[in-house]
Specification:
Distance between the termini of chain B: 63 Å
Structural class of chain B: alpha+beta
Radius of gyration of chain B: 27 Å
Number of domains of chain B: 2
Distance between the termini of chain A: 100 Å
Helix content of chain A: 25-40%
Oligomer: heterodimer
Largest sheet of chain A: 5 strands, mixed
Order of helices and strands of chain B: HHEHEEEE
Helix content of chain B: 25-40%
Largest interface: A-B, 22 and 26 residues
Number of helices of chain B: 3
Radius of gyration of chain A: 29 Å
Strand order of the largest sheet of chain A: 8-9-12-10-11
Largest sheet of chain B: 5 strands, mixed
C-alpha cells in the first residue's frame, strides 16, 4: 500500500507532469502560430511593401531585379494607393497589407506570377511574369538597313544550337550581306537571355533594337566601345530557333 | 451538512482560480500576438534607410547622388515622400555646404537618427561637392 508520503510524492510528480504538458502545448501552439499561413501572409505582404519602397531608390533606366521568396500560387495581389493587399486565393477574406510611400510619377503594379521585381518606364512591377510576357520595347529611329552587310562568324561550341549557317541564309535573303558598311556579326550561344552588343552606329543600334523587339523572350541591347563595326549576338542555346525567327521578322 | 465556511472557501477558491486562469489565457494570447507582430515587423533602421535612399535618386535629381538645387524644395520633398501624420517615418534634409534645409510636413525635432551622404549639387551649369544630411524622425 502507498503511504501518505508516497501519495504526496505521486501527487507532486503528477503536478509536475501537468505543468510540463501545459508548457509543451503552449510552446507547440506558439510555434504553429508563428508558422501559420496568416503570419506568412502578413510577412509576405510587408516584404512586398518594403520591396516597393526599395524599388523607388533603384535606377530605373535598366532592368533592376531582385528576388522574393513567396509561394505565389497561393496568393493574389492588389495595389491600392499606398498599400499592397495580399489575399489567399482560396479564402479571399484572409488578407494582409504591406504599406509603401509612392512617388507621384511611379505606378506600382503586382502581376504576381513569378518572383522578380522590375522597375522600368515609371512602373514598379512586383512579382513579374517571366520574360516572355514582359519585354522591353526599344525605340527605333531608322528603318533603312540596306547599307549594312554582315559577315557572320560563329563562336558557338554547341553544334545543335549554332545558328551561324541559317543566319547567313536569312541575311542573304534580306540583302544584308553585301552592304556598303561591312559588319562583323559574332554569334555566341552562351547567355541566359538574348543580348546584342553593337559598336557605335545608329543603323546598327536600330537593327539590334529591332531584333530585340522581334524576339519573343527577354532581350537586351548594349553599346560597345569598339573601333570596328561589330554586332555580337549572344543567346541561350535552347532559344536558337526563336533568335532565327526574330532575324526573319526584321 | 456542509458548513457555511466550507461553501465560502469553495467559492473563494474557484473565483481566484477563474481569475488566474483567465489572466493566464489572456497573457498567452497577448504573448502570441506580440511574437507574431515581431516576426512580421522590420527593424526601424532598415525601414527608414530604405525610404531614405529615394532622396539620393529620383527625388531631387535624375542621377544617383546628384541633387539639382532648384528641385531641393519642401514641395518636392512632399511630392516624393507623403506622410499623413507623425505616426510615420518623417524626414528633414540638409545640404551642408549649400546651407539649404528642407523639412517634411510632419517632422518634429529632435531627430532619432542622422544619415550622411556625399552628393554633388548642381546649380545650373555649376557643380559642387556637398554633404547631404538626412534627419530621421521615427513613429511617434
Amino acid at each position: 500500500m502507498i503511504g501518505k508520503k508516497g501519495a504526496s510524492v505521486l501527487l507532486l510528480i503528477f503536478e509536475i507532469l501537468v505543468v510540463v504538458a501545459v508548457l509543451k502545448v503552449m510552446l507547440d501552439f506558439t510555434y504553429k502560430s508563428a508558422n501559420s499561413e496568416s503570419n506568412q501572409r502578413v510577412v509576405f505582404a510587408r516584404n512586398l511593401g518594403l520591396a516597393a519602397e526599395a524599388a523607388f531608390a533603384f535606377d530605373g533606366n535598366g532592368w533592376s531585379m531582385i528576388s522574393i521568396v513567396p509561394d505565389l500560387k497561393k496568393y493574389s495581389c492588389d495595389v491600392k494607393e499606398n498599400m499592397i493587399i495580399i489575399r489567399n486565393k482560396n479564402f479571399s477574406w484572409k488578407k494582409a497589407e504591406g504599406i509603401f510611400h509612392p512617388i507621384g510619377k511611379f505606378n506600382v503594379l503586382c502581376p504576381l506570377e513569378s518572383s522578380k521585381i522590375l522597375k522600368y518606364d515609371n512602373k514598379i512591377l512586383l512579382g513579374l511574369p517571366d520574360g516572355e510576357h514582359f519585354r522591353k520595347e526599344y525605340q527605333i529611329f531608322t528603318q533603312d538597313f540596306s547599307l549594312l552587310g554582315f559577315d557572320v562568324k560563329s563562336e558557338c561550341d554547341d553544334e545543335k544550337a549554332d545558328i551561324g549557317r541559317e543566319l547567313v541564309k536569312i541575311l542573304e535573303l534580306k540583302g544584308l550581306v553585301d552592304g556598303e558598311k561591312q559588319i562583323d556579326l559574332i554569334v555566341r550561344c552562351d547567355s541566359s537571355d538574348l543580348r546584342l552588343y553593337y559598336s557605335d552606329s545608329v543603323e546598327l543600334r536600330d537593327f539590334a533594337r529591332k531584333i530585340a523587339n522581334a524576339y519573343k523572350g527577354t532581350a537586351y541591347v548594349f553599346r560597345l566601345d569598339m573601333g570596328k563595326d561589330t554586332l555580337i549576338l549572344r543567346y541561350p542555346p535552347e532559344k536558337a530557333k526563336d533568335v532565327l525567327s526574330a532575324f526573319g521578322d526584321v | 451538512m456542509v458548513s457555511a465556511y466550507a461553501i465560502a472557501k469553495k467559492y473563494i477558491f474557484w473565483t481566484i482560480f477563474s481569475i488566474v486562469l483567465l489572466t493566464a489565457v489572456f497573457s498567452f494570447v497577448g504573448l502570441i500576438s506580440r511574437i507574431k507582430a515581431r516576426l512580421a515587423a522590420f527593424p526601424d533602421m532598415l525601414n527608414e534607410e530604405i525610404i531614405a535612399y529615394r532622396f539620393l535618386l529620383g527625388c531631387f535629381g535624375d542621377e544617383l547622388g546628384i541633387i539639382e538645387l532648384d528641385r531641393f524644395t519642401n514641395k518636392t520633398l512632399e511630392q516624393c515622400y507623403k506622410t499623413k501624420s507623425s505616426k510615420d517615418y518623417n524626414f528633414a534634409l540638409e545640404l551642408v555646404n549649400s546651407g539649404k534645409m528642407i523639412v517634411g510636413k510632419n517632422f518634429y525635432w529632435k531627430e532619432d537618427r542622422k544619415l550622411n551622404f556625399p552628393v554633388i549639387v548642381r546649380n545650373g551649369s555649376d557643380e559642387r561637392v556637398d554633404e547631404l544630411i538626412i534627419y530621421i524622425r521615427r513613429l511617434i
